C-alpha cells in the first residue's frame, strides 16, 4: 500500500519524467511511425534522441538574468549603441517541436553599465533552447536585458525560418519570419531605430 503512488501525482506536469520514460516515449513514436524500435539501426535511437533533447532544451535549467548581472561599469562614458549582429539562432517551435533556425540581432544603448558581448549571445541561446514561438522569444530577450541592465533602449530583431513551415504543412521553403521588439529610445526615436536597422541591413533593415 505505502509504495503505491497516486496516479495523479506521478503524472503531474511538474514531475520530471525519468530518462527511461523518455526513451520509452521515443520507442512509442518509432512504433507509431511504423518501424521496429528493436531492429539494429534503431536500437540506440531512443538514447540518442533523449540526449539531443537534453541539448535542445538546456535553456530551462539556466537563468538569463543571472548571466546579465555580470556587468562592467568602467566604460569611459561610452553611451552609443552596442549591437551584436548575426547571432546564430537555433530554437524549437512550441506547436510542432521542430527547429526554428535563423539569426538574432541584439542592440542596446548603455546608460552606465555594459555587459560582455558573449553574455548577450548566451541570453539569446538560453531563451532559444526552450519551446518557443518567435514573437515570445523576441520579447523575452529584450525584456531581460531591459530589466537587468536598465539601458536607455533595447532592440531585438530575429529573422528565422520555421521547419514546421518548410518540411510539413504548407511546405514553403525559403520563407523567413522577421520579428522585432523595441524598448526605450529605440521605440520612441525614429532616428535611432533607423540607425539600428541600417546597421543590421538585409531583410530586417528593409522594413
Ligand atoms: Zn510550428
Describe the structure.
This protein is an alpha+beta fold. The protein has 10 helices and 7 strands. The protein has helices at residues 7-10, 19-33, 45-56, 64-68, 117-128, 134-149, 163-166, 185-188, 190-200, 202-205, and strands at 71-72, 82-93, 99-109, 114-115, 131-132, 153-162, 177-184. The strands form 2 sheets. Strands 5-2-3-6-7 form a 5-stranded mixed sheet. It starts with 6 loop residues before the first helix and ends with a helix. The model is unreliable at 203-207 (pLDDT under 50). Bound molecules: zinc ion. Residues 93, 95-96, 98, 162, 164 line the site of zinc ion.
- Give a list of the ligands: zinc ion
Give the total of beta strands.
7
* Biggest sheet details: 5 strands, mixed
Distance between the termini: 65 Å
Shape: elongated
Rounded mean pLDDT is: 90
The number of distinct helices, counting runs of at least 4 residues, comes to 10
- What does the oligomeric state look like here? single chain
Helix vs. strand class = alpha+beta
Offer a concise description of the structure.
The protein contains ten helices and seven strands. With 207 residues, the chain is of the alpha+beta class.
